[in-house]
Each structure stands twice: as C-alpha cells, then as structure tokens.
Design a protein that fits this description.
222 residues; alpha+beta; OB fold (Dihydrolipoamide Acetyltransferase, E2P); DNA polymerase, domain 1; two-stranded antiparallel sheet; 7 strands; globular
Length: 222
C-alpha cells in the first residue's frame, strides 16, 4: 500500500497531477480543491494517497491531509459512491465541509457536488452520520502540521515572526472542541452536531470559541 508520496510536480492536468518521486513519475488523481492548492511545476509537495485496485486498473488518489483521506475512505464505503463521486464531494465541500454537512444532515450540501443526485446525497448522510463524530475526533491527530509563520524585519535589523493569517476553523480545532464536549458528558452525535454548526457560523473560530458556541447550542431551550 502506498500511503504517501513526496516529490516534485511535473505537471497538473484537469483531474490529476504527475508527481516526480526520485525520477519515477506517479499519476495521482486529486479533487479540484486539492489540485488548485498544489504548487506549480518543479515545486516539492507531499500527498497522502489511497490506492484503488481493480482487476484491470490501478489508480492513486491524492489528498493534502490524512483527515481528507479518511473522509474519502468513509465516502467510498457508501454504496453507490465511487472514487470519482468522492473526489467531487471533497472537491466541492472540502473535508471540514463534508464533516459539517453529514453531521448536520445537510444532504443538499452533498448534492451540490457534480454528479451526485438527491438520493445518493441522502444515502451518504444517512449512512455516515453515526461515523462522523469519531472521524471528526480524529481530526486533531490526523491534521497536517502548519508551517512556520514568515518573519518580518523590525527596527535594528532584528526579525520576529509575523502573525499568521486567520484561518478557518480547522479540523484540529473542531476535534479538540468535540473531545472537550464529550468529556463533559455530551453524547458524541449531539456534540458533533453542535461543533459542526458552530464552525459553520464562525469560520475563524478557534477551540475555545467553538466550545463556547457549541455549549450555547446544546443548552436546554426554555
């Protein structure tokens, strides 16, 4: 099993990238979102991979993070969802978006992916809703490490790290919030729905803010 490739981009096509790994070129199929995030030709990049094996076919599918790959594995476990449909769903929503849509039962969001009809979208939500909390909880350990922030020059020629730009609520932040809520005694499914909704309402939220927002959503309604 090939789980990860690190090499240089040879070229990018409409649905795949040719990755040069030590002089060997690997054709790796990726979602639109992943392809758009890859650097240009000659640049180095790592991709986490999943190998599809059939009698007459071997295909590698590439993902920017292990968390995204984990959602791909879940998606293709649903009857009627092949690798192409999974790539379409991940390309449209991203891993965090898929987690949020399934947790909230939002079949319409899944249906927005090209080639995914309403019945298949509903099946995806129905079959994966109970698996979503565990997968979200894995996000913290599976997420890719963030790079160091760039340095900026200050008076006297010294340098300091520039503040990192605000990022959307990451899988790590959602996983940490989910874990905290479960430790407080909330059921995994209820906690996952609250975290997913909170992350959808505030794309910049970090773990403490997600926990506070989720607790408000979980509070009994008078």
């Amino acid at each position: 099993m090939i789980g990860k490739l690190s090499g240089r981009v040879d070229y990018k096509a409409s649905d795949h990238v040719l990755l040069d790994v030590g002089g060997v070129g690997y054709v790796v199929y990726c979602s639109d979102r992943t392809l758009a995030a890859l650097p240009g030709p000659g640049e180095a990049v790592p991709l986490y991979t999943e190998l599809l094996v059939r009698e007459d076919l071997l295909q590698l599918f590439g993902f920017r993070t292990p968390y995204e790959r984990e959602w791909h594995r879940l998606l293709i476990s649903v009857q009627g969802v092949g690798a192409k449909a999974s790539m379409a769903i991940l390309g449209t929503l991203g891993a965090e978006g898929v987690a949020r849509a399934i947790t909230l039962g939002d079949a319409a969001a899944v249906k927005a992916a090209p080639g995914v009809g309403p019945k298949l979208a509903q099946r995806v939500v129905n079959e994966l809703k109970d698996k979503a909390p565990a997968t979200m909880a894995m996000g913290g350990s599976l997420g890719a490490a963030m790079g160091d922030a760039p340095a900026e020059v200050i008076e006297g020629g010294a340098s300091r790290a520039a503040p990192a730009p605000a990022a959307p609520a990451s899988s790590s932040a959602q996983a940490d919030a989910l874990s905290a809520l479960q430790n407080l005694g909330y059921a995994p499914a209820d906690a996952a729905r609250a975290v997913a909704q909170a992350a959808g309402e505030d794309a910049q939220a970090e773990t403490p803010a997600l926990i506070r927002a989720a607790l408000k959503l979980l509070a009994p309604k008078e």
